[in-house]
Design a protein that fits this description.
- The complex is a heterodimer of chains A (89) and B (228).
- With 89 residues, chain A is α+β, with helices and mostly antiparallel strands.
- Chain A has helices spanning 6-19, 26-33, 37-50, 68-86; strands spanning 53-58, 61-66.
- Chain A is 62% helix and 13% strand.
- Chain B starts with 5 loop residues before the first helix and ends with a helix.
- Chain B has helices spanning 6-10, 14-34, 36-42, 45-73, 78-82, 84-111, 119-138, 142-166, 176-195, 201-226.
- Chain B has one domain (6-226).
- With 228 residues, chain B is mainly alpha-helical.
- In chain B, helix 9 (176-195) packs antiparallel against helix 10 (201-226).
- Chain B is globular and about 55 Å long.
- Chain B contains ten helices and no strands.
- Classes of the chains: A alpha+beta (89), B mainly alpha (228).
Chain lengths: 89, 228
């Protein structure tokens, strides 16, 4: 299996959240992302910082959901990858 | 009070140069803005440097011809008349700096993964671009200009060739290596065109035509891929 690139991993994490009706707890997200704890934390922080995901606090604890920017990233992902491949960037 | 002598300015081939630089600036800026969202969404270094390359092309061509038109339009041609030689030298210096930076960024957009990404690389690009620009101004000989730029072109082409040969990802719709190669050649042709002014008007027109077609081709490829 080919090694996932940074953008692929970001896409995978965002996709997991979207497929869980846009609300998932951090532990199942870590499990489903197939990343080490340290790597997951790194990507999680970056996604938060970029404004792709948001943390939602409710009576059941902390959950994670996508922001509009996160949805937009998923929407544009194929275009972005295709552009990068086209110009070998 | 009579207006600025734009009509006089536009005769003698300057009009063609103005249209030429205008097309290059528009194409470059369209590429820059069409890729803005992708850059913002991903912060992907390759896209960032690719965009910067075209921003620098736009700046280079603004300072090459367009600034004169700008000064004439706003009746500031006194700046030009104050010391045409000084203004010409500054204009050439800025053009050479920005166009060298554009080529370096284009090169870096395909090489950033292989070269250890650091701020030092960008600093080195700036230093090299400044050396090229100042050397071209101070050693006012065509031989020096051409030697510097041909050496640089060969280095760029060699790096691009190696990068393309080792690239695992191959573009499905024709290799971008051809475009990068043509862009590098375009760069050297434009420099010879500036350094040997009025060499051959047919040669000049050919350089303009090939350059415009090349930029339009890249713009087409970018717009097709970005879906804008």
């Amino acid at each position: 299996m080919a090694k996932r690139g940074k953008l692929d991993i970001m896409r995978d994490i965002l996709k997991i959240i979207r497929e869980n009706k846009n609300l998932i707890k951090p532990t199942p997200l870590l499990r489903k992302s197939n990343l080490s704890s340290a790597s997951f934390q790194e990507y999680f922080s970056e996604l938060l910082e970029k404004g792709f995901i948001r943390e939602i606090e409710d009576k059941n604890g902390k959950s994670i959901g996508l922001t509009d920017k996160g949805f937009r990233f998923l929407e544009r992902y194929q275009t972005i990858i295709s552009f990068i491949d086209e110009f070998e960037l | 009070m009579p207006g600025p002598p734009i009509g006089k300015f536009l005769v003698g081939g300057i009009g063609i140069e103005l249209v030429y630089s205008f097309i290059i600036i528009i194409c470059s800026l369209m590429i820059y803005f069409a890729t803005k969202e992708m850059d913002k969404l991903t912060s992907y270094k390759g896209i960032k440097y690719f965009r910067l390359a075209f921003l620098f092309f736009a700046l280079a061509y603004f300072f090459r011809y367009f600034i004169q038109f700008f000064l004439f339009s706003f009746n500031l041609n006194g700046i030009l008349e104050f010391s045409p030689m000084f203004f010409g030298a500054i204009q050439l210096l800025i053009f050479l700096y920005f166009s060298s930076m554009a080529i370096f960024f284009l090169l870096y957009s395909v090489m950033w993964k292989k070269w250890n990404h650091s701020k030092l690389t960008i600093v080195l690009f700036n230093i090299f671009a400044l050396i090229i620009a100042f050397a071209s101004i101070f050693f006012r000989g065509i031989f020096v200009y051409l030697t510097i730029n041909i050496i640089l072109l060969l280095v760029v082409l060699f790096i691009l060739f190696i990068a393309h040969k080792n690239s695992k990802k191959k573009s499905k719709s024709g290799s971008p290596f051809i475009i990068y190669l043509l862009l590098s050649i375009f760069w050297i042709l434009n420099i010879t065109n500036i350094l040997i002014p009025r060499f051959l008007s047919i040669y000049q027109l050919l350089v303009y035509l090939v350059s415009v077609l090349l930029f339009m081709l890249i713009l087409y490829k970018v717009l097709r891929k970005t879906g804008d």
